[in-house]
Batch of 4 targets.
Target 1
Amino acid sequence: MAQRLAMSAERSEDLTQPQQEYSGSEILLRCLIEEGVEVIFGYPGGAVLPIYDSLYHGAVKHLLARHEQGAIHAAEGYARATGKPGVVIATSGPGATNLVTGIANAQMDSIPLVCITGNVNQDLIGTDAFQEADITGITMPITKHSYLVTDVRELPRVVKEAFHIASTGRPGPVLVDIPKDVSNGKTGYHYPEQVHIRGYQPKTDPHPLQITRLHQALAEAKKPLILAGGGVVTSGGEHELIAFAETARVPVTTTLMGLGGFPGQHPLWLGMPGMHGTYAANHALLECDLLIGIGARFDDRVTMGRLDKFATGAKIVHIDIDPAEIGKNVDTYIPIVGDVKKSLSAALEGLPRSRSEAWVKRVQGWYREKPNRYRDSDQVLKPQWVIRHLHESTGGDAIVTTDVGQHQMWVAQYFPFAKPRSFITSGGLGTMGFGFPAAIGAQLAHPEATVISVTGDGGFQMTSQELAVIALGNIPVKVAVLNNRCLGMVRQWQEVFYKKRYSEVDLADSPDFVKLAEAYHVKAWRAESKEEAARAWKEALSAPGPAVVDFRIHPEENVYPMVAPGKGLDEMIMGEEES
């Protein structure tokens, strides 16, 4: 590998030699270099062969995934860990359509991506040519913007705009579809320094009058509450949020996407709200008289879709960079459109202290008296114990990725994240198979960090082929499989809502994950007790490269607290408590 990289570096010098004209693929590569792209995730094919021929020079690192879904989730992991756009390349037809899940995932969670797809020659578009797909049409509802490049001379402008759109305002995925004749076409090269897009001027500064109204509302409030979402992490406004909460003395609950945006062990933190939220967070939402939503969407996993039972006695302030979110799900008393970091900075000037001391003590009491609990056991391995052990063994200094389901909720409940961008998960779309490749992208972004992919036995099997990637590159991702031999969250819903009629959730015939990992030349361990789990995890953490630990947890363990769909936050199922 080292020899290969050295050869690539030598060849990259050739690309810098002055030329009069460049091919479209060479121009694309130069544009990516201008944007500071460090790594591209992708999978080659016929329509992108000119682009991959340009990549042969090695001027930009490329990570060869084993499936396009793995590539785009890795790009998402890189973007979520850094805040910079992730870049993915796929060929036309099935290569492009295999990106669709990742594009929708990024759109739902506001993640900046630039997705480059190849297409057939323009004279073949519309003829049902081999591996032709209308990827711009297919992805139109799930991208922030998309381009079909029809002239090689337009390529630099398009790439410049794509990165600008993906990373400004409310971030999101942008697709650039390049027909093969454009990649092969030739022209001179000039990369624009600025972007001018009429009709796209994101508003980032809040209106001063609305900030004044927020101050007035805070001064009058007796039971204020902050609902902080992923917008805090995206904007880098975590320090401003801490200052705001401490100065005004306002308790904070963070959504799933907001975890890490406020320290998980801060005395004003109440945990996560909603379907699997804490007693304190949900009851604070029920009783508050001023609710300040910051970079949060008020989605149905928080409100449960029961607005008649959600913060009914509260005036709602909504701070968001996307004006379309204001008033979409809840009636807003004070709308503040702007960048979260800038809005909080503006609000800190002259910020009054609320009359909330009795309220703060009350909700802190709830949090102490009714924390997330589980009934531990020395006979079976409990997933909550595993997550707590992962936290203790790393001191919380790790980047953790997850898919969706029970393991995702246990991580959210039992791993108190202290820093932004340390929890990477599929929030809005809820994508199985996301977490493992996302961990690869996060690890490439932060080579020295401890990166843990916590996954389930169902989700791991959706993208486990990417084990080849971490093995070949010796990428030190640690995979913790919470293996309950079933689709855990589906099974839990069938237990609670369908009278234990378990339909098609049994995964007992899954492969031996230790042997699977070893087949890819990745070290692996299995653990069925606390003692085995502690020993296996210690050895996995100490291993210099990638590692997999198959934690065989109790198959009937459920995630509690839980609010059933259609129920109000006052109808929580608390479940078992620690003995």
Target 2
Amino acid sequence: MSFRARHLLGIDHLAPSDIVTLLDLAEDYVALNRRTVKHSDALAGLTQINMFFENSTRTQSSFELAGKRLGADVMNMAVAQSSVKKGETLIDTALTLNAMQPDLLVVRHPHSGAVNLLAEKVNCAVINAGDGRHEHPTQALLDALTIRRAKGRLQRLTIAICGDIAHSRVARSNLLLLGKMENRLRLIGPATLMPAGAGEMGVELYEDMREGLKGADVVMMLRLQRERMDGGFIPSEREYYHRWGLDADKLALAAPDAIVMHPGPMNRGVEIDGTIADDINRSVIQDQVEMGVAVRMAALDLLAHNLRAERGRAATGIMV
């Protein structure tokens, strides 16, 4: 097995072989999840704690379901409503967690780098469920699995990532992953919503959506993150939809068999037309949700395997 990471904090540290290993195992869990009996004992005896410093019903539910289907004891901590409100620091939280002896820790945090800091202070395996504008690795992995299943491969595709890229950790993780797999990447959106240094990322930049979509195999739409905007990033939502919202006319410029993706939740009529989102012949948005559970099961399984191996070596005094 090529996947030897202790934590899953981002895509940056993963080799292409790690990504393939994780996606291949996720395929097994897609099959398991479609069976009548959906349980495995891969995490039997282990404790998984989901700590969400930001609300996210979709991602938290996906991780909770993944852990339970693998037989873990799963606990959700509503951190945003408890100790942090009373002034506890992230380090205090880490020490408290360590005392509970968890094996797997799933963390979402509004600040970039906070999950990495937490991982340095605890003794268990940590999965980044999204930190600030930094990374959202399991979203990129589930997107990759969805693309591979829909297109039959994960290389040599033209992939357009469209919309609010500046505020998107999903875009960052996808750029890293899809770039490692040798795809042609395009970023499409208004200049005000492009990340700093976008011109140095080795991708193609388009402000004109119609030009950027020409011949694309994959069209990945991003949510307009109004809650992260404190200024005039767009003239109006009506104007934004007119220029950068995905509708049938713009989609017709992509490849005839192009698929449409969105990480959710969607702003219908802002970044995407509702009829496009619901078109089962083009949209794979519901497939992304299904693949999310399978990818998170694979990530939990691989990290648990490595954790058990590490503890086994420590118990027998073997140094690595």
Target 3
Amino acid sequence: MEFNFSRNYFELFELEAQFHIDREALANRYQALQSQFHPDRFIESNDQDKRMAMQATTFINEAHKTLRDESARARYLLEMQNVTFNTEKDTTQDMNFLMAQMSLREEIDEVDSQEDPLESLDKLARQSKQEKLRLIENYQACFNMHQWNEAKEIVLKLQFFTRLQQQINQKQEALEEKLL
């Protein structure tokens, strides 16, 4: 069994290294790679091939997860340009953005007291999605102009919106469970 671990994620999925990707091509290539390298296909193989299949599948899954997620893909593209991230220390320094995010989180916490909590959450989700789209446009512009620090700042903000969407989803599930 052979697998080239030196390819970057875009090369692995035969995609151009850019932010906007063909999601259908990503999904199709993922299925093709999974069917080619899935460990179940190597049950009768020697230990080395079994181990390689496991490592290849792990690499494929990580690449797929990264390219599928907009925030992770944006970060990966910057890392390909040697921009580094420190998950312990890096955070946005934009105080207006931080204040706006605190306000959004408070709105999520207070949604239970709204007349229609689910509608209020939907409104917050739409608002979050619009802001995320605006950030993605800005990221794309900064990336194209090689403004790495500005693009990195936007990636840090996009990560916030990923966490915010998770918080909205959790709140929505809790509310729906309450209604059952």
Target 4
Amino acid sequence: MTQTVVLSPLTRIEGHLAIHLETEEDSSSGQTIIKKAQCEGEMFRGLETILHGRDPLDAQQITQRICGVCPIAHGIASVMAQEMAFGIVPTRNGRIAQNLILAAEYLHSHILHFYHLAALDFVDITAILKYNGTDPTLVNLRNWAKNALDKNLAFPGAPFLPRPETDQYIKTDEANWRLIDSYVKALKIRTLAHEMAAVFGAKLPHSTSLVPTGVTGEVTIERVLACKSRLDQIKTFIHTVYLPDLFTAAAAFPQYWDIGKSHGNFLSYGVFRMEEKTGEALNNFLPSGAVIGGIYQPLDTSKIREFVEHSRYSSGSGLHPWQGTTQPEPQKGYSWIKAPRYDGQVMEVGPAARLMVLCLGPGNPEMKQDVQNALNAAGVPLEKINSVLGRHLARGLEAKWIADQCERWLDELEIGKPAAAEFALPEQGRGVGLTEAPRGALGHWLTIRNYKIERYQCIVPTTWNCSPRDNQGRPGAVEKALEGTVLQNPAEPIEAGRIVRSFDPCIACAVH
């Protein structure tokens, strides 16, 4: 018998997402299996429309408001599009400072995702009630939880409770206590990451210092040291806490190497410029490319199209972002998210996609060896990156690589040299900014006429991952990853939550 399960709103993600599941009971095994899944972005925002007729230099400020978690990535994509349209390139200091700000956003976002969004799907938070040690943080947390439960409050223990009541959490108290302790420590590390971004970004979220060619502030020894002092603490946390915790969680749930498999096609625009250039073909720290059917191919953005057959838009379907428009039609489709496709294929974007492009394409040999060492330790092949655990592993390794690289960028800054260049606004122009937000491929397409923005189109990471079906009826990446999953208890489908959160959806971005 077919049943409908609705998760709305899906919590511990950014924005408003509803997951609609059709389940059936398998007659031979008696198991409940997801037969069909639909992702519904539940709101419309219209920031592309707001940009029409504005000064192009407003764009990096307005587009940062697409998101409060990954605003820097939008700011970087916007200034890159402007640089191409203006015919200018970043200064050396400007490029490196932008890399450092974006890197800090990555470190903040990956730690946020693992500890404060996804971990509560795996950690038994109620184990804190049995804590018998002397760590003052855990003692305080235990006493707070006991007090809240004893008072019979409406939601005692919030935001940790209520939760799906299942036996699918880590079994040992010691492991749970350690991860709960890391959860608390991660709050401070996220603060340090925001402070690190603010050294050259002026403030977070929504930096006021990003401009085409660089940043507005000067590069001083004080700023370099301020950035380094915070980076050192973040790096230590990643190496000694985050990665060990990640492997602890992975060892406790080995079945999740086989759960949450998307179509198996991956896309990355590449991120962190390593040269003073702008445009589509850049030398990036993490490379660009596409993996289709297990084969790497160089990035070709002419293959991108957006479809709206099942989206709440009356805009033309199957258009390249240079031609695309955004015209809402609330009665149509089942989601406010469009359906981008690359070379006609459904693509997954994000850390797992960046890792697959790196490993199957022209990636750094040392990073490839890191991936192989981690896979060997887990006893799984590279193909298992296409899974819930694969996405978590990709974030952990990426955090390590980026934190290590930040030290090199700090050494490369030239004290007193310009962090930006002067430029003139052209009467007309056209540019694209391609980068990677922590959640995946991010592109801004800009056209200027009469010194004003004539057209602005964004395709963001979660638009790729949480897309609805396209004109051919093919499910998006998250929809595909859900289908075929066995649910232990359809009334509390924790398996579905784990799959969706492994993509780290950002719906505010997706419905920009």
